[in-house]
């Protein structure tokens, strides 16, 4: 669709311009912040150096009071080392005698220090016990000097150096967060542009393109459509007018030919033959008349409307990913018989379980009450859930509130899915879902990172409050959706899978190869690692929730970049099971990286590989069901098979935190990463072996 | 055409507001936590030296309630740093046993202090008093039993004033940056939007004159050129076919 | 900060908390708790700490003190009295007293030994070796208690923090099982931390151990480039340190490290010790677990202090010209001879 790409190209250009401006603005803010930090923090640190120095001086005086000569103290550098350990801003410490000769030192000696130590003005001041301390800039360090005087007798001088670049180091930490803000702003911009430009523009251009295409193929049927009164609408109306005129001309001409034919005699008919032939030729080449309603009613414009509310709502939940386990840890209550690690995973498990079990039933429900209404109810419930989570007292009521959030989430998710299904036909279903999945994936990029930053700076409860606000905003966006539902004529009411279908499919070998060895392990490692292990492990290492958010952002960015690519490639190659195998194996290798070391960089590698593996396998997985379980679909029906597949897959979501928490109890965090990955690796290899056999080969299904 | 312009510029402003706002907010909070940390560690240096002497006395067998030299040491330490408002030592029930403020002796401390101490994973903890911040150290004996707590109250005003001064400066910078963007971005955006608007304009012009028999408006090199071409070509073909039919009909008349 | 260093010394200490140490013990019983306490040589600081703990916690106890006065013949009388008066808890001081009351864990005599009343022992140097308990985690019977020697590795690390070393020397009595075990422990730590051990047993004359030749052994150690002389918790060694061992070490400029308070008192340079007062308090804490919190002794592990005291003799340090490292001035107990008055810091 040339026109669709055109619009997105415009968006990217606009976003580029906006990003450049934003970068400039951020640079300005950072520059001024640096100045502020320099102005205020350096004097504070000097005061701290003075206090630390007094304490150290007291120690030295205590030692000399026991008779140890000032110049013969032992282990002074160890004391300096301890002081540095607690004060990373200090970069140098030294003690000189009253002449300025260095007796003990530690750290990086600044340029010109020795000259400074010998300066007569300094030494004179340092003999005076009323002088508390002095500061001078020596080289790149601020040297705080204080006298060491014992009972009126000057013994020497203590110098502590503060590196002026420590402010840079402090601001570097802020820089990382600002970078995250930049990336999130980019995605925000694209979403907002899409939202603000109006669905009408995109769908209008789309329709325009379709119309021209139809006319190129000779289809001049008139579509009796209402056109909006905007730029594109007017354009389309003009084309409609031209088409109408053509139709009128044709009708008139065709009528005239037929009249003449009827009224003519044989010779006249002979003369009319070329005209008749021409008419026939026109009839073959072109189509005139009114358009029939084709089966595929693509309600593009309204389809587009789902993106904004979905984005706002999903981001509300994604905001919590990087800090929810830590919050649960804070509210932890001792549950007898259950290890605390497992208890921490309970809210996540409950959430996933409710979403998994609710989905089959909520589909039918949202059909009954109407998609828009269902989404409104769901978003409202979720908003209440978020607010209550922010005010949670302890674990027990947290579980209740998170269940509310889960219910709301499931409602909105299923209703939105149904909305897309309703308004897309066979031809553009994939695109419709690309839009759906796209909004979700962008939310997973933006959410965790911003959420981590909010949690670190505002605290957990306020961060949940922000989620509630986002959820509320999504309500406002849902209100803009069309009130009436569109039902494709051949749609059957969706129904949840029956128990006997579930049981039958569970023991079905082909089905379970796909579900148990591929779909479920993929979800288990996703929720186990991303939702449970990463936030907890990172915080246990002493890092911030913002760092956890960055990790999850890396994962989401991998998904956003690679899923479209892998979807295209796997569709083209038709060897989708290969993609699933490779994806699983890469996911399985990710956690094994922690065997090498437990540094943060390695953890980034883990998340990177996991994102890569998941992206490769996820795109191809669901299509495999149709490919390889034809027999089962024939027996139980498409709905049932897919229903059970999704149910089991989502149960995998719930199993992830449970398994991860148990593994942590036995083997610690690193062990949990490794064990979980090893499990997925094993499943991936088993899947590869199982799908090599002849009886596996099913009928390839083209998208 | 105007509404598109306005809408896109609104997007630019909203996003810049978000980005600049977040950046300012991050810088402010970083500043506040850094300066809070520096001041706190300054206070804790004093606290640790008091803790040392308490530990030494306890190790020698003195009872926690019999530390005679403690009050004078606390006075000395408080005088050494004017940031410190007061120093309290209280037992594990929360009752203050020693204090630089004689009126407080015998009173109970806020429950939030003992809760913070219990929650902390190390011997250091923080709390808030009525009008000051508290840096605390839990005092444990030789077999890890908490015998009491040391609390150093320091001026909240000092940190808050420093933080708000920084906040003002950062906010000014942010507002300035935002104002700058509000001026530059629309101008820069208009360049892109104009091209878009021109393309749409070409499209509209072409559509208006679609059925003109005469010269059609020239293609301006916009992105829609090829499509306009297709449009015109297909209409031309259809009309040509119908013209041909007309001609054939007329010829027989 | 300094106290944190002391924590480092307790790496090997068993720290399993047998109960909630921070819980305030509110004893709301109607009658005072009765404790029957048997000492070996009268009242020591341990007993003072024991009593003070209950007073500070406001737990009413009634303690019946019985002293063996170094005569184990008195024991059966005390055991009878225990069986007659049935106290809530029995307190025993030292290895021999404890064995007299409860017997070895694998060979108790139900007729004589107490098996149905909780027993808390104190000041037992090596409970497992003495066969009082099979394992420090639990005695699996009605016994628990406190031992007072810092773990060997903690002592070695304390020594190294004073002055790093490559080789240490040990003099010990070969017939004292406790000492042999300690020497082996030191050798094991040496293998792990990478230093050598020169361990020389006292000479034996028939069955009698003698300190003859000890000064020569010390001189030889110095020639072998030994950096420290470690004084293990050895009874015979303890009787010889003040007169023979320490002077010999000082003569060759060899610093000495004491493993117990008594050895420290005889003039060693430095040592990692437990104050008896603190031991008494910890013993009382264990007793409180049994009496007030109703925890059975089999569920209370046998432990020692988590934090020990590093003592340094300043006059010895001056003589050896080895002042303690500066950080130690923050947390070590500096002992000065009575004539010099230490100036305030």
Task: Give a short overview.
The complex is a heterotrimer of chains A (703), B (253) and C (345). Chain A has 23 helices and five strands.
Helix proportion range of chain C: 25-40%
Query: What's the tally of helices of chain C?
Result: 12
The best one-word shape of chain C is: globular
Biggest interchain interface, per-side counts: A-B, 90 and 82 residues
Mean pLDDT of chain B: 85
Largest sheet of chain B: 5 strands, antiparallel
The count of helical stretches of chain B stands at: 5
Strand content of chain B: 5-15%
Q: What value does the Rg of chain C take, in angstroms?
A: 21 Å
How do the helices and strands follow one another from N- to C-terminus of chain C?
HEHEHEHEEHEHEEEHEHEHEHEHHE
Rg of chain B is 39 Å
- Assign an overall shape of chain B: rod-shaped
User: Which residues of chain B form runs of ≥5 with pLDDT under 50?
Assistant: none
Enumerate the strands of the largest sheet of chain C in spatial order, edge to edge or round the barrel. 7-6-10-11-12-13-14
Strand order of the largest sheet of chain B: 2-1-5-4-3
Poorly predicted runs of chain C are 7-25
Q: Separation of termini of chain B? A: 51 Å
What series of H and E elements makes up the topology of chain B? HHEEHEEEHH
Can you walk through the features of this model?
The complex is a heterotrimer of chains A (about 700), B (about 250) and C (about 350). Chain A is mainly α and about 700 residues long. Chain A is built from 23 helices and 5 strands. In chain A, about 50% of the residues are buried. Chain A has a 5-stranded antiparallel beta sheet. Chain B has helices at about 1-60, 70-80, 110-120, 155-210, 225-250, and strands spanning about 85-90, 95-100, 125-130, 130-140, 145-155. Chain B has a 5-stranded antiparallel beta sheet, sandwiched between helices. The radius of gyration of chain B is 39 Å and the shape is rod-shaped. Residues about 5-25 of chain C have low confidence and may be disordered. Chain C is about 35% helix and about 20% strand. In chain C, the strands form 3 sheets. Chain C has a 7-stranded mixed beta sheet with strand order 7-6-10-11-12-13-14, with helices on both faces. A 5-stranded parallel beta sheet of chain C has the order 2-1-3-4-5, sandwiched between helices. In chain C, strands 8-9 form a two-stranded antiparallel sheet. The two termini of chain C are about 15 Å apart. The relative contact order of chain C is 0.16. Chains in contact: A-B, A-C, B-C. At the A-B interface, helix 1, helix 5, helix 6, helix 7 and helix 8 of A face helix 1, helix 4 and helix 5 of B.
